[in-house]
Design brief:
Elements lengths: L1 H17 L12 H33 L5 H26 L3
């Protein structure tokens, strides 16, 4: 058991020390404009549109008396907040500013 933990620690240190290879931005003339002009604005707008759609859906359910205020709050935190966190992760992995 101790050897497995030690091996995992060594692999973790090696993976962090090696780091991910950084692509040469001058070698690719298409990916940076696509990231800057298409992916960046699309992901940023999705960060606002997804939680607002969840809010509109929750308000509609509350007006039909199918949902309470507490479940609306839980939905907003889990679905809306989770969507924002996932989109932040995608933007960080893709290198979109």
């Amino acid at each position: 058991m101790m050897m497995h933990a030690l091996a995992a620690l060594v692999h973790l240190i090696a993976a962090v020390g090696a780091g991910a290879p950084v692509p040469n931005p001058s070698s690719d003339n298409l990916s940076q404009p696509v990231l800057d002009h298409i992916a960046g604005p699309l992901l940023t707008s999705a960060q606002f549109l997804i939680p607002s759609a969840v809010a509109i859906s929750g308000i509609h359910k509350m007006m039909d008396h199918r949902e309470s205020g507490g479940s609306f709050l839980v939905d907003m935190i889990t679905k809306g907040g989770g969507a924002v966190l996932v989109l932040q992760l995608v933007k960080a992995v893709a290198g979109v500013g």
